Amino acid sequence: MAVGNQVVDIAIDPLDERRRRRRAWLRIGIPVGSLVLMVAGILAIAVYAEHANRRDALALSDDLLATLEDRIQLTVSAYLDPAARAAHIGRDIAAEGWVANRLPQVERLSAGLLREIPQIANLSFADEEGNYVLVRRGAAGGVDTKIIANAPGARRVTWVNYDAAGQEVGRHDDPSDDYDPRTRPWYQGALTTSDLFWTGVYVFFTDKKPGLTTAVRYRDAGGRTHVVGVDIALEELSHFLASLQIGRSGRAVIMDASGRLIAAPTGLNKMVVDSGGTLTTASIDALGDSALTHAYDRYRIEGPGRRVVDVDGRRYISAVAPLAAAGRDWSLLMVVPEDDFVGFVASNNRNALAMSLVIVVIAALLAALLVRQGLRGDRAARLLLDRQRAITRQSQAFATLAAEAGLFDPAGKEPPRVLTETLAEVAGARRASIWRVTGGERTLRCEDSFERDSGGHVDGLELHRDELPQFFAYLLGGEEIEVSDAATDKRTAELHRVLMRPLGSRALLAVPVRRDDRVVGSLWLEDAVSSAGARDFLRAVANMVALRMAEGSAMPIERAAVTSPAPTTATAGARRSFAAELVGRPIDPAAIEAEVFQDVAVMVLHLTDPVAMAMRAASGTGPLSDRLACALQEIAAAHNIPYLKIVGQEVVGAAGIDAAANGTAAQVIADAAVAVRDCCLALLEDSDRPQEFRIGIDCGPAIGTAVGSEPRVFNLWGEAVRTADAMAASALPGTVQATEAAYDRLRQDFLFRSRGSFYLPRVGEARTFVLAGRL
Q: What is the mean pLDDT of residues 365-390?
C-alpha cells in the first residue's frame, strides 16, 4: 500500500502546539460548556412544561367537545319536536272533516303555529283525491294560503293573501301550477306508516330552500285518507351552528349517512346545488373545506369518535357523533384546529423562553468576556514569542545577506536566488519575488521568483502595463500594497487574474524599491504567514536591492544569449543579394521539393515601429534594423534555427523542417523566441523607443519548397505560419504569445500565463498564452 508523503513544518514544536491547543480548549471549553448546560436545562424544562400543558389542554378539549355535542343534541331535538307536535295537532283538526270546508279556523290555527314555532315553514293538508291546502308565512307578518281544488275537469289553484290582522288583502288563480301532493315523498311516506314519517332533506318546491317534512295520515268518517305535513326549514339550524364558538376557528355540520349536508354554517348558495336539473343539498366535499373532507373520510373508514387529522401540515381535532334525537341517520361532525386549544401552551412557552433568553444572554456575555480575556492573554504571549522568533530569523537573514554582498552588485548577472529564498523563509511566504521596472516604466520583469513549497526558481517573467494599468499606477506611485484577498481589491484585481490565480496565490505584500525618489522595482511576498513582522525587514531589503537596480543595470543582452556584433560596412562593388533569408545554410533547396511538414514550430516577429528600425544608436552604430538582423542571425546560430527570413517589418523563423529536429522543434523555437524578446527589449531600450514589437509562435503543419530561379530560395507557408502570424498580430507589445498547440508541447519546460480565448480566422475560438520564460 502506497503511503503519501506528509509535509511537516519543522519550525513548529509539536509538543508546544499541543499544549497551546489544550490551553485554548480549556479557555473556551469551560465557559462554553457551562453555558451549554444552562441552555440545555432551560430547554429541558420548556419541553417538559409544554408536554404536560399540552396533555392537560387536550383533555380539557375533550370535555368541551362532549359538552358541545350534548348541546347540539338538545338543540336539534328542540328544533324538531315542535314540528312533530304541530303535525299531531293538524291531524286532530283535520279529523273533523276536509279542511277546505273550515278554512278560516284552519288558517287561524296555522298562523298561530307559524308565529310561535319559527322553524316551521309550511303546513300542508292533502287528501287522496289530490285536493290540497297550504298555509305559509306571508309578507308583513301575514299568511298566504294555497288552495287546490282537484275536481275532475275543473282543477283550480287559488292563492289567498292575509295581512297580520287576518284580513284578506289579495286573491288570484295560478293555472300554471301543476303541483300534486300525492306525488311528493312526504305524502307517499306517510301512507306507509301509522306513526310520524320523516322525509330526508330536500329542497322545497315553493321556497327553493333546504328542509325536511314530517307527515302523518288519518281517515275521516267517510273512510277517505288524508295526510297532514309540516315543513321544517333548516336555515335556522344552520344559523345556530354558525353561532357556536368552537375554539377560535372550529366549525360543525350536521350530515346524513351519505355525507349530504343537513345544516352547515355556510351560505344558502353553498347548501343547494343543481344536480342534473334537480335542486338538492350539497355533499361535504362541495364545501371546499379540506379539514371537514379529511375528517369525513376518516369517519367513513373508522366510524364515529374523536381523532386527530393532519391537513396541509396542520393538526385538527375531529369529532363525529350520531344525533339520536333526530330519529334518523344524522350525525354531527366537528373539526377544530388543535392550536385553538393548545396554542396558548406554545405561546406561553415562547414567552418563558424569551424571558429565559435574557439570562442566557447575560451568561453568554460573561462567558465571552472570560474567553476573550483568556485568549488575549495567550495571544499576547504567543505574539511575543513569535516576535522573538521573527527577530531571530531576521538577524540570521541579515547575516546571510551580508555574506552574499554580490547580490546587490549592479553588474551582477545571476538571478538573486539566495535573496528570494531568504525573503520567503523570513516571512513564511509561499512565494517571494524581485521585480525590475523596465521599458520606460511599461514593463515589470521578474529577476527571480522562489516558490517555497516546491523549492523552484523562475526568472524572466514579464508583466506589461497594457495588461495591468491599475496595478502599475499604484505600484509606480510608490504605494506599499498589502491585501489579504487580491481578487477583491481594485489595486490588485488585475494582477490576481493574470498571474496570482493561475499560480494559486491569494494574499500579496508588495514593497516598492526606490532610487532617487523613483520606483525602479518591487519586492513581493505572496501568501505570507507573518507579513506584519517581516514588513520592516522587507523595507530594509528593498533599500539594499535598490543598489542592484541602478541606472543602466538592466540585464545585459548576453543574458539572453545575444550579443550585437560589430556592424559591417558593405564594400564598394559588393554584390547585392535579393534573397530574403537571414539563415538558410542547413537547407539544400535543390534537394527539397514541395513537402508537407507535419510538426513545424514557427515564430513570427512583428516590428510595428518603422521609424525605430531606421534610427541609429547614440554610439553611432548602424540602424536598428541592421543591428537587429545581426542579433537574429546570432540567435539562429546559437539555437540551430534552420529557417529565418525577414520581409519588411516581419521576421519568420521555423524549426522542425529537417531530420535533425528529432521532436525538439518546439523547445528550440521557444528558446529562440525568449532570446529574441530580450534582444528587442534591450535594443529598443537603448534607443528610447517604446516596445513596439510582438512575437507569436505556433506548432503544426506547414508546406515548404524551393522557389524561384538561381539562386533558388526555400519558402515556408501553411497553417502554422499563418497562425503564428495571427498570434504576433494580436499579442501585447513586448510579449510572446503562443497558441494552445504550442502550450501543450512546452508547458513542462516553460512558464506560461493564460491570456484568454480569442477568435482566430478559419480556426474559431482558441485559448492563447503568454510565454514568460524557461523553468
A: 72
The residue from 322, 340, 367 where one domain ends is 367
Say what the pLDDT of residue 621 is. 64
What residues pair up with 647 in beta bridges, in sequence order? 650
Domain limits for position 329 = 28-367
Calculate ∠ Cα 542-545-547, nearest 5°.
125
Q: Are strands 168-173 and 202-203 parallel, antiparallel or unpaired?
A: unpaired
Alpha carbons 561 and 275: distance in angstroms, whole number: 103
CA atoms within 13 A on the CB side of 243: 9
Residues linked to residue 643 through DSSP beta bridges, in sequence order = 654
* 178 and 291 together in one domain: yes
Task: Give dist(CA 769, CA 754) in Å, integer.
Answer: 4
CB burial of 73-85 (b: ≥16 within 10 Å; e: otherwise) equals bebbeebbebbbe
Cell of 611: 521609424
Averaged over 345-351, what is the pLDDT? 72
State the CATH number of the domain containing residue 505.
3.30.450.40
Say yes or no to pLDDT of 502 above 80. no
Question: CB under 8 Å, gap of 24 or more: what pairs does 288-296 form?
Answer: 289/251, 291/316, 291/318, 291/335, 291/337, 292/251, 292/253, 292/333, 292/335, 294/318, 295/320, 295/333, 295/335, 296/255, 296/259, 296/333
Question: With contact defined as beta carbons under 8 Å apart, do 465 and 443 qualify?
Answer: yes
Whether residues 588 and 543 fall in one domain: no
Domain boundary among 554, 589, 612: 554
Is residue 596 within 8 Å of residue 716, measured between CB atoms?
no
Instruction: State the total domains in the chain.
Output: 3
Q: Under DSSP, is residue 244 helix (H, G, I), strand (E, B) or coil? A: coil
Minimal CA–CA distance to 696: which of 755, 626, 762, 630? 755
Going by C-alpha positions, the residue among 636, 666, 668 that lies closest to residue 651 is 636
Whether the Cβ atoms of residue 437 and residue 446 lie closer than 8 Å to each other: no
* 210-249 pLDDT tens trace: 888 888 888 877 778 889 888 888 777 778 888 887 877 8
State phi, psi for 145 to the nearest 5 degrees.
-120, 130
Same domain, yes or no: 207 and 232: yes
Instruction: Indicate if 547 and 563 belong to the same structural domain.
Output: no
306 plus 427 within the same structural domain: no
CA distances from 447 to 461, 498, 523, 552, 684 (A): 8, 18, 10, 15, 19
| DSSP E strands, 295-393 | 305-311, 314-322, 331-337
Counting other chains too, the contacts that 633-637 makes at CB distance below 8 Å and 24 or more residues apart are: 633/582, 633/583, 634/562, 634/563, 634/565, 635/561, 635/562, 635/672, 635/675, 635/676, 635/679, 636/582, 636/583, 636/672, 637/583
- Shared domain for 625 and 703, answered yes or no, is yes
CATH of the domain at 766: 3.30.70.1230
Lowest mean pLDDT among 128-132, 348-352, 475-479, 574-578: 574-578
Cβ contact 734:612 at 8 Å: no
The closest alpha carbon to 263, from 237, 285, 288, belongs to 237
Question: Is 0.85 topped by the overall pTM?
Answer: no
pLDDT at position 596 over 70: yes
Question: In CATH, what number is assigned to the domain containing residue 289?
Answer: 3.30.450.20
563 and 540 assigned to the same domain: no
* 106 shares its domain with 241: yes
151 inside domain: yes
Q: Give the Å distances, CA to CA, from 624 to 138, 277, 617.
A: 122, 107, 7
For residue 256, is it within any domain? yes
- Distance between CA atoms of residues 509 and 519, nearest Å: 16
| Residue 705 three-state SS | strand
Position 574 in a domain: no
Kindly state whether residue 320 falls inside one of the protein's structural domains. Answer: yes
- The count of other CB atoms within 10 Å of the CB of residue 337 is 19
Rounded CA-CA distance 709/211 in Å is 121
- For 206, list phi and psi in degrees, rounded to 5: -90, -50
**Total Cβ atoms within 10 A of residue 477:** 9
